[in-house]
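hey m, so remember when u said the tokens were messed up on ur end? i reran from scratch. heres the input so u can diff it against urs
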Amino acid sequence: MTAKARKRKVADRIPPDGKRVRWTRGLGLAWIFTLLLVTLAWMVTTRGSSHAHARTKLAASAGPFGPTVANSAPSPETAPDGMVWIPGGEFSMGANDPPDMDEVGMKATWDARPIHRVYVDGFFMDKTDVTNAQFAEFVKATGYVTIAEQTPKAGDFPGAPPENLVPGSVVFSPPDHAVRLDNHLQWWSYIPGANWKHPTGPDSNLDGTANYPVVHIAYADAEAYAKWAGKRLPTEAEWNLQREVVLQANHSCGAIPFDRTTSGWQIRIRGRFL
């Protein structure tokens, strides 16, 4: 969904009573269209506690993930409709230096290293991703036009062929044969006319998908929606903490295994890669 917003480190500046919109950020990569990188789903995050903020504790050296220690304090108020209280706490986030593949897949973790301990205050977060229906309501009320629906400006993409400066977005196109991991254009395609109303291109639509997560949303689009909804986007630390809390809750009831050494902690992309 976005021009990749630089990940804010844990000491993010969070307004005292800021509300958070929850999003599932995703992967978009197309050479001259980096400002149109899209996240695959997002969620409006929460309203935080009266002192919502995140504090970082950097370990002296990289090490393994430590246990998540959730706060025991109850929610300070009744959860707003469609939201859930995340109690906050201390957890490990980041990544160690990988033993190999640093020139390909692991480059994305450079700014997350090393593994470090982080404390986050409690906050409210949407229970689900922002849906097509919710985003359509926002667009209807405001007349908002997303980044993917706007014609790229030549000044933003020096040297780009004029024929490439057309509204659109990147769509995942899994290869049907084995490919290397050193060229993202082998599994992402820039599709003119692709946007939140036309997820896979101009001939697609939202029929039957009103409650699906909205896609092709740039960071600026997400911020605009969050502001309209009276909320805000989560920080990187808040997003990671809510994942920890959810995974532990699912583990405690036997729904899923809780083990970072399993493939469940990896991003899963369909396709054949060398």
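this time it looks ok to me. The longest strand covers residues 89-93. if urs says something different then somethings off w ur setup not the seq
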